[in-house]
């Protein structure tokens, strides 16, 4: 019985070992199959990966080429646009400089013309002022020499003198020559009135100063006509006739003559 048990156990252990060996062999085959399968799948995956890498490389190269082409086209367009803008800016700047130069030239010419006009205006104004002052002085001189001072002014001169005003003050206040003031006050002290002395005959239209002016003008320009002298005296404030002018000139030894008409030597 014991032997049978040992034989049974031995037989079972043998069976277990055989079974274990079979299992181990089966596991080895499975492992080999797995290794082979894994190797084949890995190879497939590697091949797929390599293929994808190649495709990705082609796509990348294509994208790189497209990017380079687009970049080159964009750079070319940018350079062309920049050149166009530069040329346009240069042209506009040139036009602006020409317009500015033309404007400055016109402005300078206008300023020069305005300056010349202003100078001429100033010169004309100064000459007119000088002429007006000279005419004013001549008028004052003519009036002082030929016109008689009115009774109201004579009375005011006497009143101012009685109030204590000096001759210079009366002269500046009433715009009357100092000699006239002295004459009026002297006459008042002597006669007790300021009436003008009685004079026979008509008053002379021209005073000695006017006569000297006529004679001087004729000496300067002997071809002056009598009507021109009348016009000159009228502008000075003296209304005279041609006969008066001729009489004054005749008194100073100046006679009027008409030039002799000479016949033509040749027919026209």
TrEMBL record:
Q: Which UniProt keywords apply?
A: Coiled coil, Membrane, Mitochondrion, Transmembrane, Transmembrane helix
Limits of the Transposase Tc1-like domain: 212-268
- What's the protein here called? Transposase
Regarding protein family, the annotation reads: Belongs to the CCDC90 family.
User: Pfam families of this UniProt entry?
Assistant: CCDC90-like, HTH_SB, HTH_Tnp_Tc3_2
- Localization per record: Membrane; Mitochondrion
Q: What is its main location?
A: membrane
Annotated Sleeping Beauty transposase HTH domain ranges read: 146-195
Give a yes or no for keyword Membrane in this entry.
yes
């Amino acid at each position: 019985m014991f032997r049978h048990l040992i034989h049974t156990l031995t037989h079972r252990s043998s069976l277990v070992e055989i079974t274990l060996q079979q299992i181990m062999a089966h596991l080895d085959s499975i492992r080999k199959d797995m290794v082979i399968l894994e190797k084949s799948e890995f190879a497939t995956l590697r091949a797929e990966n390599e293929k994808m890498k190649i495709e990705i490389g082609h796509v990348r190269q294509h994208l790189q080429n497209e990017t380079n082409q687009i970049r080159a086209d964009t750079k070319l367009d940018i350079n062309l646009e920049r050149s166009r803008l530069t040329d346009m800016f240069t042209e506009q700047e040139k036009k602006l400089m020409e317009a500015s130069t033309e404007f400055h030239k016109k402005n300078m010419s206008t300023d020069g013309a305005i300056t010349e006009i202003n100078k001429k205006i100033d010169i004309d104004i100064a000459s007119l002022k000088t002429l007006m002052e000279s005419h004013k002085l001549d008028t004052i001189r003519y009036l002082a020499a030929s016109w008689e001072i009115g009774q109201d002014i004579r009375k005011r001169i006497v009143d101012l003198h009685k109030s204590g005003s000096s001759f210079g003050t009366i002269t500046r206040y009433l715009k009357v020559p100092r000699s006239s003031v002295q004459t009026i006050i002297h006459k008042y002290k002597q006669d007790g009135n300021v009436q003008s002395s009685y004079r026979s005959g008509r008053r002379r239209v021209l005073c000695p100063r006017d006569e000297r002016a006529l004679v001087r003008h004729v000496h300067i320009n002997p071809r002056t006509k009598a009507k021109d002298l009348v016009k000159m005296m009228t502008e000075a404030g003296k209304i005279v006739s041609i006969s008066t002018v001729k009489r004054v000139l005749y008194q100073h030894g100046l006679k009027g003559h008409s030039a002799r008409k000479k016949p033509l030597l040749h027919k026209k």
